[in-house]
Design brief:
CATH topology of the largest domain: Rossmann fold
CATH architecture of the largest domain: 3-Layer(aba) Sandwich
Helix content: 25-40%
Number of domains: 2
Distance between the termini: 31 Å
Strand content: 5-15%
């Protein structure tokens, strides 16, 4: 291809991190860059290659003529640990204990607590996020059911089904974990009927994309106590409206889309490794890692 001489960083890269890309020269003009590292905020640009810093890519579909790669595999570690943390908090009523701490009250609860061990966990989406979490959940003694687009062999979970079998397996799950990206096939995939199929004691967790289910559906489900609780790191139309009833529900844990970020140093380390490999591959006309498409994993 010849030497690529310019690159622009949309990602927050320090001097040492930029220096680790040995085949490019960094410039400060996004409109003149051959390569972009990070998520551009403008679309009227014409680079030759874009390496996104996010796993999500829906806002970039069909926007550029050049190859675009996402940062899949950067966030599986952080998000899987976030899920273990918040699921255990929910199963052991930790929000109530934290409230008592704020009130300086030494109160115990008689409510039954649950364990990940022995629980049936349904994982919707078996890409990097879902499969990494599945391994950790199984290590803690959970029985895992995976739901994905294609029913190809998968030794990560105990059972695997396709999306069209979702209604059949939902009633079996104690915990439902959603890790799907936002695509035309997944937007508003879940509705109120799906929650009625779940156990009344079920815990619903979403760390994928907020447009998997409408916000008012989540609010109604919790108001009517259709299931026990929720863990929501993503929500339709972020940020969550301050007037939403979800904020004050004692059985809902809400975080502002932080389950997978570069606050975890290892996540950024993995991303930089992917980006360096892809820059080298692009310059030398070799296959790219994580080139995006419209398909669901």
């Amino acid at each position: 291809m010849g030497q690529i001489i310019t690159a622009f960083a949309c990602a927050d890269l320090n001097k040492e991190e930029k220096a680790s890309f040995q085949e490019i020269e960094w410039i400060d003009d996004i409109y003149k860059a051959d390569i972009i590292i990070g998520n551009p905020k403008v679309y009227d640009i014409h680079p030759k290659f874009i390496q996104l810093e996010s796993a999500g890519y829906e806002q970039y579909e069909n926007k550029f003529a050049c190859p675009v790669c996402n940062a899949s595999k950067s966030f599986g570690l952080g998000i899987s640990e976030y899920l273990i943390c918040t699921i255990l908090m929910s199963l052991r009523h930790m929000k109530a204990h934290m409230h008592n701490q704020d009130q300086r009250k030494w109160n115990r609860f008689d409510d039954t607590i649950q364990s990940i061990s022995g629980s049936c966990i349904l994982i919707l989406g078996l890409g990097d996020l879902g499969s990494t979490f599945a391994k950790k959940a199984k290590a803690l003694g959970a029985y895992t059911i995976g739901v994905r687009k294609s029913k190809k062999d998968c030794d990560i979970v105990d059972e695997v089904y396709t999306i069209d079998s979702l209604n059949k397996v939902l009633p079996r799950a104690d915990i439902i974990v959603c890790t799907l990206p936002s695509t035309k096939d997944t937007r508003y995939l879940l509705n109120e009927e799906h929650f009625h199929l779940m156990k009344k004691s079920a815990l619903f967790c979403n760390v994928g994309r907020g447009d998997l289910v409408r916000r008012h559906t989540l609010e109604k489900v919790m108001h009517e106590k259709i299931i026990q609780g929720m863990v929501l790191d993503v929500i339709e139309n972020e940020p969550l409206d301050p007037g939403s009833s979800l904020w004050l529900d004692p059985n809902v844990i809400i975080t502002p889309h932080v389950s997978g970020t570069f606050q975890l140093a290892k996540a950024k380390e993995i991303f930089l490794d992917i980006a360096r490999q892809n820059v080298h591959a692009f310059i030398h006309d070799k296959p790219l890692i994580n080139q995006i498409s419209s398909s669901i994993q």
